[in-house]
Structures are given as C-alpha cells and as structure tokens.
Write a structure and sequence with these properties.
The protein is an all-alpha fold. It contains two helices and no strands. The model has no long low-confidence stretch (mean pLDDT 83).
C-alpha cells in the first residue's frame, strides 16, 4: 500500500466556530506511520489556520485519532 504524505493547505483566518478542515490521506496501518502523518498535518495547520495556543491540543487529537484507527479499528492490518 502506497502511503500519501504530501498535501498543501491554503492560509485562512481562524474562526473556531466555522472551522471545517478536510484532508483525504492513505496511511499505512502501523504505529510508525502516525508521527510522519501528524507532523505533516501540523506543519500545514501551523501555516494556515491553527492558532499557536491550540497546536498541542490539535496534535494530541490527531495522534489519538490515528492510533485508535490503526490499533483498535484496523488491528494494525497492513491490508486495511
């Protein structure tokens, strides 16, 4: 399975009440895939819409969501 890790977001004004952000990614079902994907997502968010005071919370939410999908949803099955 080929992992997609490159994407770009356009800068936008941050409005928490109006925030909708969507990215389609293919991520390998391995724990090792989490950090590179989250790092790329956070880099894009930092340059587009994430206020500095929210970065840690957003990064933790990304990590937790990906870990849940990989470990509990896909059971680290590389075919999923």
């Amino acid at each position: 399975m080929k992992q997609q890790t490159e994407f770009e977001l356009q800068p936008r004004e941050f409005m928490a009440s109006d925030l909708t952000w969507s990215v389609d990614l293919v991520v390998a079902s391995t724990i090792e895939a989490i950090s590179p994907v989250v790092d790329q997502l956070m880099q894009s968010l930092k340059t587009s819409c994430c206020p500095p005071e929210q970065e840690i919370a957003v990064e933790m939410a990304f990590r937790e969501a990906l870990a849940n999908v990989i470990v509990h949803g896909n059971h680290e099955d590389l075919h999923k």
